[in-house]
Specification:
Number of domains: 1
Number of strands: 10
Order of helices and strands: EEHEEHHHEEHEEEEH
Distance between the termini: 26 Å
Strand order of the largest sheet: 5-4-3-6-7-8-9-10
Strand content: 15-25%
């Protein structure tokens, strides 16, 4: 690890987490077609798009109230095989999610994730037990005890077409609130998702470093393949670091239970 200092919106913090692009593992290459991982990525994608739309609705409806919702939210993604056998049709991706209040401390997404990293590293992992579903989330999808950490998703209302503050000035309802999702999964793949508002017909634009075609011919969906997605670079860095800490927590839990979890990766 190495020391670095980052300044964001006037807030400087020194951190001992490896948040440098050169320290991040390369995304999984497009190797042999793997329909099972394609199914996992698609389910993670659909769960995040659903979350982002609900996030937009809640933030719009609660703006100006005492329970206003901030522009950033996190999803802790898990995959489960409740039907057994490990076949794609039996896989299920579920999420534990966290919305944040709209206050100054939580509008800076990098500071927000940094604080979660700090809490996990300094307070939770030393206890030998850290599960973001109980430590960080305020809502959790049904999942079995065998569900395995898959990755992280960021839902943000700072969209490609403008910030949340700008959207509030021009939108007339929740369907005119666009959003963006960043998804990073345990196989190294990344997805960047832009969900447009109803004035742009609610289109969802996808860039992915991992294959999304469960069936290749004809393609399952319309998306853009990329060898890497490096922007917004600092946001990816903090998501990666938080994911590493959560994975460490799962490894502690697996050892305490004597193993038996679903394998995390297939490369």
């Amino acid at each position: 690890m190495y020391e670095s200092t980052t300044a964001s919106q006037g807030y400087a913090y020194s951190e001992r987490y490896p948040a440098n692009p050169s320290s991040m593992p390369a995304p999984a290459p497009f190797a042999a077609h793997d329909p099972q991982w394609a199914e996992v990525r698609n389910q993670a994608l659909e769960r995040m798009v659903k979350m982002n739309a609900a996030h937009a609705r809640h933030a719009w409806e609660r703006r100006g109230s005492s329970s206003h919702v901030g522009p950033h939210a996190l999803a802790f993604l898990y995959y489960d095989v409740p039907g057994g056998a490990g076949r794609p049709q039996h896989l299920m991706v579920a999420a534990a999610t966290r919305l944040f209040h709209d206050d100054d401390d939580q509008r800076d997404v990098h500071r927000l994730i940094f604080r979660l990293c700090k809490q996990a590293d300094e307070q939770l992992l030393p206890t030998g037990s850290f599960d973001p579903r109980t430590a960080f989330a305020n809502r959790t999808d049904p999942m079995s005890a065998q569900a395995t950490f898959l990755g992280l998703g960021l839902s943000t209302l700072d969209a490609a077409t403008g910030s949340w503050e700008q959207t509030q000035q021009r939108a007339t309802g929740p369907t005119q609130v666009p959003g963006r999702c960043l998804i990073i999964l345990s196989d190294g793949s990344r997805l960047l998702v832009d969900r447009e508002d109803d004035q742009r017909f609610g289109q969802v634009k996808l860039i992915s470093t991992g294959d999304l075609n469960v069936v290749r011919d004809p393609p399952t969906r319309n998306w853009t393949a990329a060898s890497s997605i490096n922007e917004p670079s600092e946001t990816w860095q903090w998501l990666l670091q938080l994911g590493k800490l959560i994975d460490t927590g799962q490894q502690l839990a697996d050892r305490a239970e004597g193993g038996g979890a679903i394998p995390r990766q297939r490369r």
